[in-house]
Amino acid sequence: MIKKWSMSYPAVNGTEQRRAYVYLPTMYEAQPERRFPVLYMFDGQNVFFNEDATYGKSWGVADYLDYTDTPLIVAAIECNAGVNNERLVEYSPYRFDDPTYGHFDGKGQATMSWFIHRFKPLIDQNFRTLPDRANTFIGGSSMGGLMSLYALLQYNDTYSRAAALSPSIWVAPDKLSGLVGRAKLAPGTVLYMDYGSREMGNHEGIRRQFSALSGKLMTRGIHLTSRIVPGGTHSEVSWEKQLPFVFHTLLYEVEE
After folding, report:
1. In whole angstroms, what separates CA 252 from the centre of its chain?
2. What is this structure's pTM?
3. Which of 11, 167, 172, 187 is most solvent-facing, going by the fewest CB within 10 Å?
């Protein structure tokens, strides 16, 4: 079951209405006393419905979770669809320059503040969640993957597990590496992170950066699943194929 509605969001160009989505697991109504962990996701328009997806193809997350009877709530909010690449502003923790699109003042910290102080309380108040850190996860791809990685490191007191698919680690790699080194991480922090082999050439040195980042994350004691996806591309079609790996990692030994 997916609930979908419009809600007010403090975007970089002023307050606007965004589509919000919540997936409820197959056993949600049949087990009215049961509470569930929550996965928060970026780019909500691409998570469930092809008709809402930016490029006409979603991840198909609801279909996968229904098929596997996975006891998990998924809450997502759509991205900024502004014509001036405002999504890159909202989904970057850092200022950065792109040779094609120009300069961006990263507002990722403000985005995460909204997720933690507005979106999460709304979900916890209206659905039967397990609101504690151990049962609160975050995930996304591309810039959403970068934000998921950032959230796990910077807000580890809120999120215990994350999935970062094809994360845009080329954005301010030195600052990201610095955050990995100084982040206050609770024992048992879990991360799934991947990159498609066919997208490794999209940015110079990305294979080297991905390898170095994976190594540094492991030295911090993070329980890391790091993969190079054979034939993987930077697309929802490819990310959908990774869902078994993603959810196996996120829910491994999560107490029901």
Report:
1. 18
2. 0.95
3. 187
